[in-house]
Amino acid sequence: MQVVVSSAFLLLRIGSYVYLTLTSGNLNMTIEQRAAEGFAVQLGVSLYFFSFATSFYTSTLTSKYFRDIFWKRITEFYRRCCGQL
């Protein structure tokens, strides 16, 4: 699952840079087209860097063991900071 999510984010980044490279010579682009292009590139970069955190989310969502451990850690943290549950 983690490989699929990371690959999808990487492909989005590659796709946005390929599109930027192919359209960079077009001088007749409107402001809206340039803004959409910039947004697509920034979204691709942001999702690419988010892919480094996907191991936590995919493990927590797909494994009961990781969810149990995560819940125990949250309750321990809450007990230390805010008192007893």
Q: Please, could you describe this protein's structure?
A:
- It is a single chain.
- The protein is mostly helical.
- It has a domain at 2-60.
- Helix content is 82%, strand content 0%.
- The protein has 4 helices and no strands.
- The chain has helices at residues 2-23, 31-50, 54-62, 64-82.
- α3 (54-62) packs across α4.
- The two termini are 34 Å apart.
- The model has no long low-confidence stretch (mean pLDDT 84).
Task: Please count the beta strands (DSSP E, at least 2 residues each).
Answer: 0
Beta-strand fraction estimate:
under 5%
Q: Overall pLDDT, averaged? A: 84
Tell me, briefly, the overall form: elongated
How many helix segments? 4
Share in helix: over 70%
List keywords for this structure.
single chain, 85 residues, mainly alpha, elongated
List the helices and strands and how they pair.
Blueprint: H1 2-23, H2 31-50, H3 54-62, H4 64-82
Write a short abstract of this structure:
By secondary structure, the chain is mostly helical.
